[in-house]
């Protein structure tokens, strides 16, 4: 069920990738080769417009299955990134993953640029929307409906918080959902009998208490 891999500077840093751009290139090429022909998303690591453009073109040359991640805006909310997305898609034929989006309006703002080239992905951070106390499901449903007119663009349900998000994404027809190892490990519990699940949970408590030697 795994159909690709995504990275970002935070993930790479946590994974121990060092050595500047050389380290990013080495790890990206390793992953791209491992999962080929499935896609790998690699995010540019600059906010300078020309450097972003140069990096995106360079990243796309590392492997045929690399998609370039561009954030919806700069760190101060700048929207100049739309120009970069448009140029990469239309002029350089680079497949883009537009990331860090949280609203329908943001998604709509990139559709024209993404549809000019080979297409790509829109990553909506549903988990962070939920962190703000807002139900992300209506947003994700609306984006799914909008993208029915853009067959070359797929929605990624990003930053899931729990296994149930996988169920929700599937029910609304979301194309892709990112999933950490913690979520993937829980997949066998889907459809589990709740009475049996209760017994297993109590057994876990009992076994852990026994192992710890808790007694009065």
- The arrangement of helices and strands along the chain is EHHEHEHEHEHHEHEHH
Number of strands: 7
Helix content: 40-55%
Given the helix and strand composition, which structural class is it?
alpha/beta
Radius of gyration: 20 Å
Percentage of residues in strands: 5-15%
User: Termini separation (Å)?
Assistant: 48 Å
The largest sheet, given as strand count, sense and whether it forms a barrel, is:
7 strands, parallel
Number of helices: 10
Low-confidence stretches: none
Tell the overall outline: globular
- List the strand order in the largest sheet: 1-2-3-4-5-6-7
Mean pLDDT: 94
List the helices and strands and how they pair.
Elements: E1 5-6, H1 9-14, H2 20-35, E2 40-43, H3 49-62, E3 66-71, H4 81-90, E4 96-101, H5 104-114, E5 120-125, H6 126-131, H7 137-147, E6 153-158, H8 164-171, E7 176-177, H9 181-185, H10 194-212
Parallel strand pairs: 1-2, 2-3, 3-4, 4-5, 5-6, 6-7
Helix pairs in contact: 3-4, 4-5
